Known about the structure:
Distance between the termini: 34 Å
Oligomer: single chain
Order of helices and strands: HEHHHEEHEEHH
Largest sheet: 5 strands, antiparallel
Number of strands: 5
Radius of gyration: 31 Å
Amino acid sequence: MQIIDYVNILRRRWWIIVLAAVVTSGSAYVFTRFQERLYRSEATYLVLANQLDNGLSIVLQNSMNSYRELALAPRELDKVSQQQGLDRSAEWLLNKHVAIQPLPDERKIVVQVTYPDAEVAPRLANAIGQNMVGLVASLNSSLEGSSRINLRELQPADRVSLYWPQTRVIVAAGGILGLVIGLLLAFVLEALDSTLKSATDIERFVGLTTLGAIPTVE
């Protein structure tokens, strides 16, 4: 097929492509309307070591991972949930709702909470972070001053953003998918259509030269 053939197919079947894009993007929008709203908030903590040496990065990484495990322990999460008056179990919180990400190279720990309530998300992130600070302080009480690693709040969780659903992204993805489906459907229908629609088609597929055409008379 030549380029002009593809252009002619698009001209004849354009409505199929548009219809498919409209249907899929509309379906994607309806899908987002039935999704539970989840809001995300983050609190950042700075990691400070009392002793500087060549192996500090390794020490920080190991310590941060330990702090993360302590703060995400089911007993600690249940305690924080009760303190905040939430009817959420540790299992529910750990199921993609609470995450703690150590950043050894930046000497930071990020507490991330994804919650269906925009007001609770930052409050819960700050509570988990402060509980982690308290756990680290308890560990430091049994260590020498030079071996201690402290946590300081760098950025509280005072900003909230809608994490799910991302309506614009989902609708745009649905529209693109619809265009692809529409294009495939248009070419499939064209391949199944064996009728000759123009003099050019006759000359190409039959191999005969067109001498004339009978006009349509109403």
